[in-house]
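For reproducibility, we list the full input for the adenosine-5'-triphosphate complex.
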Amino acid sequence: ASITRGVTVEIPKVTWEDIGGLKDLKKKLQQAVEWPIKYSTEFKRLGISPIRGILLYGPPGCSKTTLAKAAAHAAQASFFSLSGAELFSMYVGEGEALLRNTFRRARLAAPSIIFFDEADVVAAKRGGSSSNSSTVGERLLSTLLTEMDGLEEAKGVFVLAATNRPHAIDAALVRPGRFDLVLFVQPPDLEGRNQILSVLTREMKLGDDVDLKRIAAETEHFTGAELKGLCKEAGIVALREDISATVVSHRHFQTAKDSLKPALTKADVDSY
Ligand code: ATP
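The corresponding predicted structure, in tokenized form, follows.
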């Protein structure tokens, strides 16, 4: 049973519409992930072989995981999730076994998407540190590369890897036939934050005075995850003020915002 530890199989329910902003990125993912699965006959007719993997990079909380799930939903693909950090922490051999087993199950359940979070932990540049742990990473990386190369013949298995540390990734991973596309999932700009807030407040009862544009303007450097936290906090502020409140008003958002500080700075963003 330990061999399946940490792996979840499902077709996610998240849709492209649940993700605010990132219009171009969503389109690229649609074409690269959704199309080859949906239109496999058409691809075959034209003799195009679809790409096997995409590396998503960018700061935490900007919807890398959510994008992968939305791609799986759109393609009605089984979704497998692996974490580099979790593989790395396993007993000797167990991480490789889980990796191989996940690819095997993904081939059986195709069309499938394997989401590989914290890829940098496993796919760190080789030959760096000489500690014992680097050999664990090297073995996992070579297993991953072997499995990626094996996808050439497998139909309908797609790997979406994610990292917050793109500079640490081994170049062998972004060789053609492995991760052919490397996409930056950027933190939202003003327009992006506005769209994210619209998505996040869809189900909320908002007062007439709530001005999402203004909130977007006043939340520079907030990630999507932090905006989600802000909306939740605004609801709690409203209830704290009056437990029988029926709407969340602008001042509740203001109070919530004053209690939160974005983790990202401009320097962090510029470092990507
Ligand atoms: P990490 O690198 O920490 O895994 P991530 O980039 O994978 O982060 P997600 O886990 O996808 O980020 O996002 C965190 C949460 O923030 C999600 O629950 C999602 O609902 C929300 N979120 C982030 N970005 C957006 C967005 N653009 N639109 C709507 N919700 C968002």
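The longest strand covers residues 157-163. The beta strands are 9-10, 53-57, 78-83, 112-117, 157-163, 179-184. Both points were considered when choosing residues for closer inspection.
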